[in-house]
Batch of 4 targets.
Target 1
Amino acid sequence: MALRSRSGKLAIAGALTLVGVGGGIAYAYPPGTPMEVSASAAPNGDGTADVTVTVTQVNPTCSTRIIIDGVEYAVLPPGQTSIEVPNVPAEEGRQRVRARNVNCAEGDKEHARADFTVLNGAISTDSDLVTGKNVRFELTGMAPVGAEVSVTATRLGGGSSPEPQSDRVDRRGKAKVKFKFTQSGTYAISATIDGQSVASTSVTIS
C-alpha cells in the first residue's frame, strides 16, 4: 500500500471532516504537554476514505505507530508527524485513530487516541409524504458531535413553508427532525451547521 505524506489534498479533507483530539498517558514530551493525535478523512465515494493523521508534541527520538480501527497502517520515522493513509474502510459513525511511540532513543514512550467521522452528509425519510402529518427526516454523516444542525424546508415556487427545525449531532453522526407540511408541492430540504451547508435533498408532498 502506497502511503503519501501530507499534501494539498488536506485542504479538501479539512472541509469535510471532523477532527478529534486525544490525550496521551502520564508521560509527556516536552514536559507537561502530552502527545496528541488528530485525523481527518476525505470520502472516496466507494466505501473508503483517505485519512490524514497528524501527531503533535511527539518525542522526536521515537518512531510512531499509526493505527486506525485496530489496523496498523504505518510507522512514522522519528521527526515525521503527519501522513495520509489512502483507502481506509469508511464506516458509519465514529472511527478511531491511535498513535503510539516505539523505538525511542531517549525519553518515555507515549500513546494517544482520537475519534473522527467520515463526513458524507445525507438527508432521508421513510415517512408518508402527505400534508397534515409529521414527516420525519434523518440526517447522517454529520459532525462534530454535539453540533446543532439547522434544517429548513422551503416550498419551491413560494407558498407556505414549515418553521425551521434543529437537533444535536449524536455520537453516530446522526440527527433527526420532523416537519408538518400544510401545503402540497415540492420542497427543498437543507441542513446547515454554523451556517455551512452540510446536506440537502428535495421531497414532493401530496
Target 2
Amino acid sequence: MLFNSLLNLSHMYKSKSRRKHFGIDMFPMFNLLLIVLAFLILCGRPAIRCPIAINLPTGSYFNTADPDGYATTILIGRNKLMLELDAADIRKATLKQIGARHDTQFTQAEESKFGETDVIGTPLATIKKYISGYYNAADYYNQPGLTSDELAEWIKISRKATFEKYGRWSHIFIMADAETPYPEIKNIMAMLGQQKINKFSIIYSYIKQI
C-alpha cells in the first residue's frame, strides 16, 4: 500500500522541463566564411614553387609590411641564380624586350605561355624549348640557372617594363640559401649597385626572441 501511494504521488508531481529549444540559423555564418575565403583568394600572395632548395638563414627582426608595387625576387642556392617576377604582364613584356635585344622573336602564344611561368632560370639560348614544354616538372626543377650577366639583364629590363607600365619601380628581394658564401651575395649586391638599386630586402626565416 505504501509503495502504491508513493507511486501515485510521483505521477501527480511530474517535473516540468524548463529547457527551451531555439532554432539556429547557420546562413549568416556560411556567408561570413565565404567572405573570408574570397578575401584570402584575392589578397593572398601565392608561395613560390622554387626549383632550387633554399634553406633560409635565420634572423631576429620581423616585419609584416609588404612593400608597395611589384616584387622581383633573386633566388640564390646550389650554385644557381634564378629570378621570380610576380606579375604575368611584366614577364611577357620583359621577354619581348629581351628577345628584341638579342634578335630573338617570340610569338604571342609563346609570350602568353611565358607569362604563366613564375621562376626564370633558363638561359635565353634555350628558353624557346623551355617555354614549349612548360609546365613540365622535370624541365622546371632542372633549370640550369642564369649567369650573373643574364640575371642583371632580366632585372634591368623587367624594372624598365614595370616602370613603363605602372609608373613605379619593382621592389627587389634577395632569397639566398643559408650556406651561400658571402662573396656570392656581395657580387649580387654590387650588380644591383651598378643599376643604382641601393634599396632591397633580404628574405630569411624569423626566430622569435624570448
Target 3
Amino acid sequence: MQDLIRAHAGLLFAGVATFILMGAGQALFGPVLPVYLRDFALTEAEAGLFVALLWVGCFLGVGIMYVLGARIGPRHALAAMAAGTAVMAASPGWWLTLLGGTLFGLGYGMATAVFNPRVMRAFGARGPSMLSLLNATFGVGAIAAPLAFVGLGSDPAWTFGAVAVALVAIFALAGPAGRVAAAPAGEVRAFRPHWGILAFGALAIGMEASLAGLGPSALIRAGVAETRASELLSAFFVVFLLARVGLIFIAHRVDPFLLYTAAIGSAAVFALGAVFLSPAVFFVAMGASAGVFFPGYYVTASGKMGEDIRVPPTIVAAGLAGAITAPLILAPVSAALGERGFFVLVACILCAISLAAILSLRRMRV
C-alpha cells in the first residue's frame, strides 16, 4: 500500500487539496445566502437559484468530461473553480454572482469526474477505501469554511477570495496528477447505464445538496441565530467527515449499496428528530448520513455500469440532476410550510427513499 501511495503521490496531493477546497466552496453557499438575501433583496426562491446554479455548473462540467474526458486534467477544473470564486469574491451584482457560482460548479463537476475514477483505478482492490479517503477530505474544507466565514465578519468577499487564492496555488502545483491515466488500458466492459442506481444517486445527492445549501436558512427560520446556524453547518460537516473517515476502514469489506441504504435510513430517522425534537441537534446528526451517500452510490454504480470512460461522468451527472432540482423545489415549498417545513419535506422524501432502497437491496448488490 505504501508503494502505491508513493507511486501516486502527485495524484493524491492534487486530489486531496482540490477536494478540501471543493468542500470549502460548497459549504460557503449556505452561510452566504442570508447575506445575499439582505444585500440583494432576494426572495427565498431567488436565493434557492444560487444553490441550484452551483449544481447546474457541475452538470455542465460533467458534460464536458463525458465528451472530452480523456483531454481534461486537474488544472482545467482548478482554473474554472478559481475563476468562479474570484467572481463571487468581487460580488459585482446578483447576476454576476450567480455566474461565479456556476463557474465554480463547472470546475467542481470536472474535478469530481477527474479524480474519483483515477483514484479508484490507481489503488486497485483498495480503490473503494481510497475513494472514501479522498471524499473525506472534502469535509475538512467544509468544516473550516463556515467558521472562517464567521471569523471574517460574515463577509463573502474575503472568504471566497481566500478560496480563490488557494485554488490558484494548487493549480501551480498540480502538474503530476495530470499524468495519471484517465482511462484503463486494455479491454473494458461495455457502457451500460443502470437506471435504478442512477435514480437512487439523484435522490441522495439532491438531499445532500439541499441540506448543505438550504440547511442554514432552514435553521434560521426555525429560530436559530444566524451565526449559530453557520456554526451548526460546520458541525454538520464534522460528523460528515468522521463518517467518511470511518468508511476508509470498512468500505472495501461491506457491500456499497448496503452502506447506501443504512445512510438513507439513518438520515430519515434524524430528519424526523429535527421535525419533532431539535432541528439544531438532528441537522448536525444528518451530516453523518450524508457523508456516506456519495461513496455508497458511486461504488455501487461503478460496479453495475462497467469501466467505460463515460461511466464516471454519467454517475456524477445523475447525482447532479438531483442536486440541481432538489433545492429549487424545496426552497419555495418549505418556506410556505412554516418554521420546520424544510425538515418535514426532507423527512418525507428520505423515508420514501429508504423504503425503496430496502426493497431493492438484493437487486443492487455488486
Target 4
Amino acid sequence: MGSIIGLSLWVALATVIPGMVTIAVVWLAFVIANGGDLSTLPFNFDQTSDWIVTSIAVTVMVMTQALGIILEKMMIQWKWYGTRKKEELAKMDSEPMGWYDAYKKLYPQLARLKESDDAKGHLERAIAQFFMTNNTLVSFSVGLVTSVILLGQGPGNPVGLWWYAGALVLCLAVTYRVAVSRFRILGESFLAVYQDQS
C-alpha cells in the first residue's frame, strides 16, 4: 500500500502540478492579451463540456511531461545542470561516479533498491522534486511562447502582456536555478545510496 501511495504522490508532483501550471499560464496570457475581458476569449471554459475540459487538461499534462522528458535529456546530454567545482572535488576522498554518470544509471539502480535503502524517502522526494521542477520549466516556457505569439498579433493590452512575459522570464530563471539545485541533490542522494550498496 505504501508503494501505491508513493507512486500516486510522484505522479501528482511530476505530471498533474506542472500540467495545472501550464493551463494557468496559457489561460492568463489570453486573459491579459484581451485586457481582462473574458467574453472575447476564443474559448470559454464555463460553457464547455466537462469532458472536453478534462481532455484538454489531460492532454496539456501529458504533453508537459513529454516535453519535460525531452528537455531533461538535452540538459543531461549538454550538462546544463552544472558540474562539480574543482575545489569541491578536492575535498572528496573518492567518487565512483559523477552526478551525470549516476543519473544515467538511475532507473536500473532504482529497480535494485530495497525498501530499506531509502527508508526515509529522501531519494524518492529528490527524484519527484527534480522532475516536477524540470517539467515546470516547460510550463513557463509554453506560457512565454504563448505571450510572445499574442504580442505579435497585436493584443488589446500589450503593456500588461509585456509585464506578464517579463514575469515568466523571471519565473524561468528562478525555476532553472532550482532545477540545478534539485539535480545536485538528486545526484548526491543517489551517490550516497550507491556507495552504501558498494
